[in-house]
């Protein structure tokens, strides 16, 4: 639609070379919001559109240059227009790919964070269970032995070890 509008404007303007750079705008917009293929297609349509007007009325394009100079100027302009569309479209495609990979990484990070929160909750529950068990063991130790010795065992200043003991009995003469 924009190319048609620019074509109508180009039809009514006498100095057409001065308006050729306006064709970069729809190609850049197509490259940004569409893909590289559509931007290149838009550039090629713009070149065809301008070439159509150049063939119909070449004098309206020439500014003290011959027909060969005009066609070389249009060729270089058209080549840059198509190249601009291709570069802009490819940059947009790469940007979309990077955005998609970032969105995937964010979703994976969110999932890992949720897994970590669940694991942390399970660990806190197990820690609470261990604290309750520790309190029960301390209560049993205090009830079954001397509280001072139980405190030394709990503080790990006294070890309670099982060791094999051998006892030798001998009869002593009386």
Structure keywords:
single chain; 174 residues; mainly alpha; rod-shaped
Could you characterize what this model shows?
The chain is mainly alpha-helical and 174 residues long. It is built from five helices and no strands. The chain is rod-shaped, with a radius of gyration of 43 Å. The N and C termini lie far apart (129 Å).
pLDDT below 50 for ≥5 consecutive residues: which ranges? Answer: none
Question: H/E series, N to C?
Answer: HHHHH
How many whole angstroms does the radius of gyration measure? 43 Å
Helical content, roughly? over 70%
Structural class: mainly alpha
- pLDDT average, as an integer? 81
Q: How far is the N terminus from the C terminus?
A: 129 Å
What is the strand content?
Answer: under 5%
Shape: rod-shaped
**Number of helices, counting only DSSP H or I runs of 4 residues or more:** 5
Write a short abstract of this structure.
Helix content is 74%, strand content 0%. The chain has 174 residues and is mostly helical.
Task: Produce the secondary structure layout.
Layout: H1 2-12, H2 24-33, H3 36-56, H4 67-144, H5 147-154
Helix pairs in contact: 1-3, 2-3, 2-4, 3-4, 4-5
């Amino acid at each position: 639609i924009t190319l048609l509008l620019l074509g109508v404007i180009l039809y009514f303007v006498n100095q057409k070379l001065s308006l050729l750079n306006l064709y970069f705008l729809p190609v850049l917009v197509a490259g940004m919001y569409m893909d590289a293929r559509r931007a290149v297609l838009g550039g090629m349509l713009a070149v065809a559109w301008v070439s159509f007007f150049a063939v119909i009325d070449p004098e309206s394009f020439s500014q003290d240059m011959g027909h060969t100079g005009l066609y070389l100027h249009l060729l270089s302009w058209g080549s840059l227009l198509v190249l601009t569309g291709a570069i802009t479209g490819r940059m947009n495609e790469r940007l979309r790919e990077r955005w998609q990979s970032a969105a995937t990484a964010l979703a994976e990070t969110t999932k890992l964070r949720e897994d970590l929160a669940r694991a942390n909750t399970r660990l806190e529950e197990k820690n609470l269970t261990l604290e309750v068990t520790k309190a029960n063991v301390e209560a049993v130790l205090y009830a079954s032995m001397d509280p001072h010795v139980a405190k030394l065992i709990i503080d790990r200043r006294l070890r309670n070890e099982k060791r094999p003991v051998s006892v030798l009995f001998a009869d002593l003469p009386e």
